[in-house]
Specification:
2 domains; two-stranded antiparallel ribbon; 37% helix; 5 helices; two-stranded parallel ribbon; alpha/beta
Length: 134
């Protein structure tokens, strides 16, 4: 990729340790049926072209994604029904660590903002939160 340096990457990606958790995660992803990146092709064309050669089932967040054999575009339809720049987008990624209290506080802050929001959150994290509230 042009003008791309290793030192431009965030610290936890710059590693020579073969047991690094992110490296192991990427190795596992090669067998995933679909991989969704939090970006759009127009923003990161070069990087996505390289990654597409390694992960043929790569998709970007702003495109339709095939789920269980059907095209799921409910989120896109909902977003398109909103005024431009009127939706709060939240995605902490899969590496962010938050306590349950912090997550609940953030959730209530979003709910009380009275703004439209799209929050991408891991399903297992939701299950964990739900089980702790019972």
């Amino acid at each position: 990729m042009q003008n791309f340096r290793l030192k431009d990457q965030i610290d936890y990606i710059r590693t020579t340790d073969p047991n690094n958790f992110l490296l192991q995660f990427l190795i596992i992803q090669k067998s995933a049926p679909t991989i969704i990146f939090n970006t759009c092709h127009e923003l990161e064309t070069d990087a996505l072209n390289v990654l597409s050669s390694m992960f043929p089932s790569l998709h970007t967040l702003l495109h339709q994604v095939q789920v269980s054999g059907k095209i799921s575009n409910i989120c896109l339809e909902w977003l398109e029904s909103k005024e431009p720049r009127s939706v709060i987008y939240v995605n902490f990624g899969s590496i962010t660590v938050m306590s349950h209290e912090q997550l609940f506080e953030f959730a209530w802050g979003l709910a009380n903002s009275n703004k439209n929001f799209l929050w991408i959150i891991k399903y297992l994290l939701l299950l964990s939160l739900y089980s702790q509230t019972l």
